[in-house]
Amino acid sequence: MSESGSQNSTWSRSTWLSVVSLTFGSFALISSELPPMAVLTPMAADFGVTEGAAGQAVTLTALFAGIAAPTVALIIGRLDRKLINLVLCVLVIVSNIAVAFTSDYFVLLAARMLLGIAIGGFFALAGATVVRLVTMEDMGKGMSIVFMGLSAGLVVAPALSTLIGEALGWRAAFIAAAGSGLLALLLQAICLPSVPASSATSLSSLVGLLRRQQVRVGLAVGLLFFGGEVCGFTFMRPYLETNGRLDATAIAPVLLMLGLASLLGSAIAGVFADRVLREGFGATFLVLGIATIGLLTLSNSYVAVLAFAAAWGMAIGAGPVMTQTWMGRAAPDQLEGVGGLFLAVIQFGVTLGAIAGGIAVDIFGTSAPLYVTATCAILAAILIATQRAPDVISQTSASALAPAE
């Protein structure tokens, strides 16, 4: 079946609840990953370490997420994916509680490693789980709803963690994050049906995925997107301060606009991913490139900055949905394996983007990371334009992708 044959099917109430329970899972994960960035200074002081050392709590989380992503599917075999998701929620809760109550720096790091495993496992399995709930034809719609939790967390978590940390102390921010994990655990326990594995992932199947051209294209685009986006976003505030001459009061609405637009981008991306994947995929990165160039050339106009920040946010909200859907259609028979590879590439891209941004700023100034973002986005759009979109579903794998009851 080609992508043009995708239909806008109607979901049952139980299907909606099961997908939304995964949305709360993605929200809990991002809400647990971000607090150290918001409370880094008091957290470092409490542990008696430098801010750089405390920042390793973020680095280790990303590192272990990247390691866990391709390996979790190898380890879990044919275990029910509902059980795996519940275990991952428990890891989120345990990690946050351990951070909130420990006074030992190494326990802090170990707890953040657990969170990394939960992040890697959840997002590696998310695509396959969604397809089992809603079918491949609605994968884009399902993933857009799941990723809305991630986008909402990006908007809410940093500000909320800062407010909680100021009012109740930095440890309270992690207790709140544990509460979000508990909510996700309860919702998935109640709403998520049994999701038996259709097959187990092997090391040879992971290697085999790299031989598929459309999988390689998806991984390359993912590397360009996440590396470029992180490179620019990390240094967005310094750029607006230096080149846009904006103070913190003026920058806050820009970042809020960007965050809200990313939520909207996640919400609408599924429609395009299911109906016009190749065109929507390419347009996403073209918009990101144009918006970044706009920020670089019109930073002296506050209205223009707000408009381009909104376009930037929509693109970075839509990008993960589009990329995950492309990867799923490129390997419908190996959804968990390709999901693990995809998340490993994300983490590598995030690390590479942050390093490249830091080097670019030090050598060329605060505008340099945005040039990297624009270049990566345009290269991704060109790469997609040269490819044929994967089919919605292959005939050989159709029987393996029946929705879970």
UniProtKB/TrEMBL annotation:
Gene3D superfamilies in UniProt: MFS general substrate transporter like domains
InterPro entries xrefs: MFS, MFS_dom, MFS_Efflux_Transporters, MFS_trans_sf
Give its localization: Cell membrane
Q: Name one GO molecular function term.
A: transmembrane transporter activity
Question: Where mainly found?
Answer: membrane
Output the SUPFAM superfamilies linked to this UniProt entry.
Answer: MFS general substrate transporter
Q: A Gene Ontology CC term for this entry?
A: plasma membrane
User: Which branch of life, at top level?
Assistant: Bacteria
- What membrane topology does this protein have? Multi-pass membrane protein
Q: Which UniProt keywords apply?
A: Cell membrane, Membrane, Transmembrane, Transmembrane helix
Pfam families registered for this protein in UniProt: MFS_1
PROSITE patterns the UniProt entry points to: MFS (PS50850)
Domain called Major facilitator superfamily (MFS) profile: residue spans: 18-392
Q: Where do the TM regions start and end?
A: 16-34, 54-76, 83-101, 113-133, 145-164, 170-195, 215-236, 248-273, 280-298, 304-326, 338-361, 367-385
Query: Which protein are we looking at?
Result: MFS transporter
Its taxonomic path starts at: Bacteria, Pseudomonadati, Pseudomonadota, Alphaproteobacteria, Hyphomicrobiales
